[in-house]
Specification:
By secondary structure, this protein is mostly helical. The chain has two domains: 74 residues, Winged helix-like DNA-binding domain superfamily/Winged helix DNA-binding domain (Arc Repressor Mutant, subunit A); 148 residues, Four Helix Bundle (Hemerythrin (Met), subunit A), CATH 1.20.120.530. It contains eleven helices and two strands; from the N terminus they run H-H-H-E-E-H-H-H-H-H-H-H-H. Strands 1-2 form a two-stranded antiparallel sheet. Helix 7 runs antiparallel to helix 10 and helix 10 runs antiparallel to helix 11. The longest helix is centred in the middle third of the chain and has 25 residues. It is elongated.
Length: 233
């Protein structure tokens, strides 16, 4: 584990990242006891307070079990991990894991297709208008960074229009980690070529055509996946 230095928050982030990678890579197996807190702090060259801050984050993610008076134990991330684990798996060791990203984009495409169909059935007039506005804004975005922010807003609005709280919360839960790594996920590269698909999707939702909305968003999700895959080669 590399030493962590600097401000408490920054040091804690470094310890957290190092321990998380060790857990996800299998260095520590499910059910295995972790070294003592004192040993982990000494290895990372940080204070006990800094280490405990990192351990608390891992516990909140469901990746370790901490009991007073007992050893810390590793939990199986496949059984207990949530959406917050995905980004760390995809970006392990600073690189992009094509296999994990493939799973992410497969799930993303399926979810967005169903969001579009539900939105076409359930949207309000205001939501339909907002989707059209966002599609138009993407067409005039000055660069793909601005387009990427509008893209997320478009799909967040689609989730709201779908009227399913779970989808809304999924979008909320991935927002911060998505934008933290947005530069490495160029879903809106050459965004001007994608504009007709946003327009088609917004139009189909406005016209209450679930099948057409599903197809338009499906094509858009597929094109975005192709852009990320191209960036990996």
């Amino acid at each position: 584990m590399p030493p962590a230095t600097g401000h408490l928050g920054r040091a804690s982030d470094q310890v957290f990242s190092a321990l998380l990678e060790a857990l996800l890579s299998g260095r520590y197996a499910p059910g295995e006891k972790l070294p003592t807190q004192r040993a982990l702090a000494a290895e990372a060259e940080v204070t006990m307070g800094t280490l405990r801050e990192a351990l608390q984050r891992l516990e909140q993610m469901g990746l370790i079990e901490v009991r007073h008076g007992d050893a810390m134990r590793v939990r199986d991330w496949r059984r207990h991990g949530g959406l917050d684990v995905i980004a760390h798996l995809a970006l392990a060791s600073g690189g992009l894991d094509a296999g994990v990203l493939g799973d992410v984009f497969e799930a993303r495409g399926l979810m967005l297709r169903e969001l579009a169909a539900l939105a076409a059935d359930r949207r309000s007039a205001d939501q339909a208008a907002r989707l059209r506005e966002l599609a138009a804004a993407i067409s005039s975005a000055p660069d793909h960074h601005a387009a990427q922010r509008l893209d997320f807003a478009f799909f967040s609005e689609l989730a709201e229009a779908a009227g399913n709280l779970v989808f809304v919360l999924i979008m909320n839960s991935i927002r911060s980690v998505y934008f933290e790594h947005a530069e490495r996920l160029p879903v809106t590269a050459a965004h001007e070529e994608l504009v007709p698909l946003y327009m088609d999707a917004a139009q189909a939702v406005a016209q209450r055509r679930p099948g057409a909305a599903r197809r338009a968003v499906g094509r858009l999700a597929d094109r975005q996946r192709e852009r990320v895959e191209a960036a990996l080669t």
